[in-house]
Amino acid sequence: MSELRHPPGTFDVLPPDSARWEAFAATFARVVEAAGYGLILTPTFEDVAVFKRVGESTDVVRKEMYDFEDKGGRHIALRPEVTASVARAFIQHRPALPWKTWYAGSNFRYERPQAGRYREFRQVGIEAFGTDDADLDVEVIALGWEFYRALGVNRVELQLNSLGDANCRPAYRELLLNYLRERRDDLCDDHKERLEENPLRVLDCKKEPCRDLVKAVPLQIDHLCDECSTHFARVRQGLDALGIDYTLAPLLVRGLDYYTRTTFEYTGLALESAQNGIGGGGRYDGLVAAMGGPQTPAVGFALGVDRTLLAAEAEGAVLGRQPGVDVFVVDFAGGEAARDLTAALRSAGIKADRAYDNRSAKAQFKAADRSGARFAIVVGPDEAVAGNVGIKDLQQGGDQSTIPAAGVVDEVRRRLGG
Ligand code: HAM
Residues lining ligand 1, judged by CB closer than 6 Å? Predict the structure, then answer.
């Protein structure tokens, strides 16, 4: 049988590298919980209908969804993103407003795997429901910004746009459509065919003919209604007041169809441009109603964990403590002392590990070094008989000293400085 490997577009994260993923989630929770966001857990798979409103003209829904019929004949999809699930949960449970949530977890998109683009990838994100106050857009954007700083990722560009709303978008859509229809021959092959479906998709098309064409297209930000214009101005004022730099990006439409008004992306400047979108989000005031709930404005973002970690690495940000233990018990007197001492150390809150199988002292000391422990507690036959143990500083060197086994917890605590 050939060797079993993880599927294409997925990867394993082993310790100690996984400490970076842990630190990521912990830092995110700290930043957003301090602003009143509470953790929400939703299923990793949903009825496929939940994701339909994410956009039937988007690649995410049309081409990349992991969907299947389950054994009960239900049409199920692994979530390609979390926003639609949170909106579904909102409609189902009707929590009091405003409702501010955060999440962390895996998403699945059948994309062509490459560095920074995976079929299973992790996101953290926030979603806030119940007000269209532009200050909330600013809060959301600022939290992402603050989080990157807390993580040590500093080379981030914030791109900002407004996509208008149900009031002004239809007229802009018509304007854009007419403009592009007249130039249909200049579009990429895909958009020649699919122009009518959603002309906005042309704006962020990566293919050369479309990129050329959009240089002179009419822009939504020049055709906002008064309400959207005032809203956008307030968002910009808020970002200015908080000292958050942004670049206006009038072609930014994002890869999902539910956005209204504010849309934004965080770009990791240390990454290659194909995968430098490290996070993004925006307002989606129409999604809850489109999914059958009450009209409820909402705004949020999701950050790509794996991709942001690539950016952190490229910037040389050091993330995550080394896991590992404080103490390693080396026992060549039969193993009972190792069993009892590690248990006593652990229940005293000291991180402790040991070797198994009565291995040689040499092999155990090697394991102790590999464990990253600061101290080795050494139990040889003589010490065991006398009720003593040796303690040796593995990091600073020096001689091994002998202490009573009964005092080991206090001595380790004292030496660790607590
Ligand atoms: P999104 O732009 O599709 O937005 O994804 C957000 C982030 O997830 C991206 O910026 C990227 O860092 C990461 N990401 C997306 N696809 C992949 C992939 N195949 N491999 C690695 N990382 C990836 C959303 O998902 C929206 N739900 C964001 C949102 C929340 N809007 C409002 N609220």
Answer: 81-83, 109, 111, 117-118, 121, 123, 125, 127, 255-256, 277-282, 284, 300-302, 304, 306-307
